Give the backbone structure.
Amino acid sequence: MNSETRPSVPLRGFHLFTLFGFEVKLDLSWLLLALLISWSLGAGWFPARYPELSSYAYAWMGISVAIGVFFSIVFHEFSHSIVARYYGLPIRGITLFIFGGVAEMESEPPDPKTEFLMAIAGPISSFLLAALLWAAASIAEGGAWPQPVAGVLSTLAVVNFTVAVFNLAPAFPLDGGRVLRAALWHWRRDLQEATFISSRIGRGFGTALMILGVIAFVGGNLIGGMWWFLIGIFVRGAASSSYQQLVLKDMVEGQPVRRFMRSEPVTVVPSLSIAEWVEDYIYRHHYKMYPVVDGSRLLGCVTVDSLQGLRREDWSTTHVADVMEQRSESNTVDAGTDTMTLLTNILKPAGRSRFMVVEDDRLVGIIALKDLLELISLKLEIESPGRSG
């Protein structure tokens, strides 16, 4: 199970509630985690520890632990969020998903101290919650409380202790990896280099988890092996993407869209037939979106999605003007817009990967997510701290 804080575009999820100004959302993938917890505990863990109970009791104990895990993760992420707010870092909200939870920061911490305190708050909160649950379980076992209640409390204590220990692993973007990055940042005075080193360790840790998962799977522990393998994949991928996000932010923040746009876009006229557009433009240039212009006036755009529902035999008699999307704020962006603002507040929420760039109501270029990602890949290859030479 993983917990992290990270700057990111807003994650999708269903709104559950708002507490202390923080929105808590649930990604549907978390339901798979809840189902796995309920099933594995109800079918294996609790029957082995409490053989005298009924199947009905085991089922409800498993469900109760899953609910308890939900609130434990929320508590862990709230700890990150409260510290972030204290130091002036905006948090979009908290989202629970299959590998735990994430507090979504809008930017990186301003200094190593803030990074350290924000990161360490999560494991400390989980250790504290584990201690309280252990105390409650001890009271339940020593008193007249029903055995299932004591079993649920003690299991939740173990879960919170495990979450705290796991997150202390010095593998970015786990909390321990963020603590390591804070130390490297303080020592090297270079956030990008600190992120590069800690993310490399995170990738190695993820690979190790994947190997352990395969060994466990081959050894007969099918569920445990699969779970460790999936967590390893997630940690490895998150470590890589976290470094890429930082490089992206450093590259585009404060830079206008005009710096990264394609300044000579391929355009079409409204009178062009769909057959000609497909044959002479799509198959030739391989773009999915084309601005539609009439002289110097931008009318809108036509995309490959416009072909949906259009019969092939009608292509020669249908024109671009018949299927084009009118120019609007949803498909254009001003050339002076901050590129980071485009990525975080416009491009992703709009569900688009390309925008027409305008200046003084004139079409001056095209900005595409694909082009930005290719530029990031090239920058990483050329300028990564670990590159020799």
In short: The first strand starts at residue 2 and ends at 7. Residues 6-10 have pLDDT under 50 and may be disordered. The radius of gyration is 26 Å. The CA atoms of residues 5 and 39 lie 29 Å apart.
